[in-house]
Amino acid sequence: MATSARRGPYFCGVDAAMDVVSGKWKSLILWELHEHGTLRFAELRRGLPGVSEKMLVQHLREMEEDGLVNREVYPVVPPKVEYSLTEHGVSLNAALESMAVWGQERIERIGAEKVSPEAA
């Protein structure tokens, strides 16, 4: 299992929070699991256009280690694995909500395009 490079000391709470959500895909993984609930790996990957399998696996392992994501393995053939948010992941997602609002306002202010998962 992957180990996080940093475990403190931290300068402040923002530093500690960013340590957990650093990386392009982690906040998007949190949001996808929040929006759709429990997902299998392929479902999660389809919801994140552009993420490589390697990067998704790496981020999910780190997020599991940090207590944000629950990985449930079912003893069936073929293997079935589902991912869901832990209570800790839900609380982090709630903290990211105001950033999402700020980002949406920025998209509108600068007239940027929004990528649709269906278009990718």
Characterize the structure shown.
By secondary structure, this protein is mainly alpha-helical. 52% of the residues lie in helices and 12% in strands. The chain has helices spanning 13-21, 26-36, 41-46, 53-65, 87-110; strands at residues 39-40, 69-74, 80-85. Strands 1-3-2 form a 3-stranded antiparallel β-sheet. The longest helix has 24 residues, at 87-110. The protein is globular. The two termini are 31 Å apart.
Amino-to-carboxy terminus distance: 31 Å
Largest sheet: 3 strands, antiparallel
Strand content: 5-15%
Mean pLDDT: 89
Q: Helix amount, in percent?
A: 40-55%
Q: Strand tally, please?
A: 3
Spatial strand sequence of the major β-sheet: 1-3-2
**Topology order in helix (H) and strand (E) letters:** HHEHHEEH
Outline type: globular
In quaternary terms, these chains amount to single chain
How many DSSP H or I helices? 5
Low-confidence stretches: none
Query: What class, by secondary structure content?
Result: mainly alpha
Radius of gyration: 15 Å
Characteristic key phrases:
single chain, mainly alpha, three-stranded antiparallel sheet, 52% helix, 3 strands, 5 helices, 120 residues
Summarize the structure.
With 120 residues, the protein is mainly alpha-helical. It is built from 5 helices and 3 strands. It has a 3-stranded antiparallel sheet with strand order 1-3-2.
